[in-house]
Write a structure and sequence with these properties.
Distance between the termini: 41 Å
Number of domains: 1
CATH class: Alpha Beta
Strand content: 15-25%
Largest sheet: 6 strands, antiparallel
Oligomer: single chain
CATH topology: Alpha-Beta Plaits
Radius of gyration: 16 Å
Number of strands: 8
Shape: globular
Order of helices and strands: EHEEEHEEEHHE
Helix content: 25-40%
Structural class: alpha+beta
Length: about 180
């Protein structure tokens, strides 16, 4: 049997407006309805305090693994379209991060390294975001970053050590369950 063509990708998912768990599950299901995307695995949900933004609302975050036959830019457009379906409004005139009903980030597109005005992969802030690394480690601890050569588990451990050493601000995070 011939292996199926396509690429394994990882996406970050987040929501801090509304019922985050329900929104992420619905968005995951929406991704599975797109031609050229096959759902592989979704991490547990993680409840996380906002990072690098002022908000009273905690996030629900997760990482998903997909098998895709879409190009990176086609996948990015798909992610943005699904965000819009869930009420995400991107304000290009404002700076910083804002509360959002749904955020879908392309973290890795196989071992591709890409830096264009539309898309940068790997995602440039993976290494400093516990809300990405903790659920990612749950799914694929041995996945190697194509730029640094470090595994996701090693990146998470390094970030946790850096937070403890005071090199980064504290990042509050609690693993949850989808049915809780």
């Amino acid at each position: 049997m011939k292996p199926e063509a396509g690429t394994i990708v990882f996406i970050g998912m987040g929501s801090n407006l509304g019922d985050g768990k329900s929104i992420l599950i619905e968005a995951w299901d929406s991704l599975g309805q797109v031609s050229g995307i096959r759902l592989e695995q979704l991490s547990s949900p993680y409840m996380t305090a906002p990072v690098d933004m002022q908000s009273q609302h905690w996030f629900t975050n997760a990482v998903g693994c997909l098998h895709v036959s879409l190009s990176p830019l086609e996948l990015l457009k798909t992610l943005m379209d699904i965000e819009a379906e869930f009420g995400r409004i991107r304000e290009h005139t404002s700076f910083g991060y804002h509360d959002r009903s749904l955020d879908l980030d392309l973290l890795y597109y196989g071992q591709e390294v890409m830096d264009s005005p539309e898309l940068t992969v790997p995602h440039p802030r993976i290494g400093v975001r516990l809300f990405v690394l903790a659920p990612f480690t749950e799914l694929a601890p041995d996945f190697k970053d194509p730029v640094t050569g470090k595994t996701i588990a090693a990146m998470e451990q390094r970030l946790r050590e850096s937070i403890l050493a005071g090199e980064y601000k504290k990042q509050e995070i609690v693993c949850s369950r989808w049915d809780a």
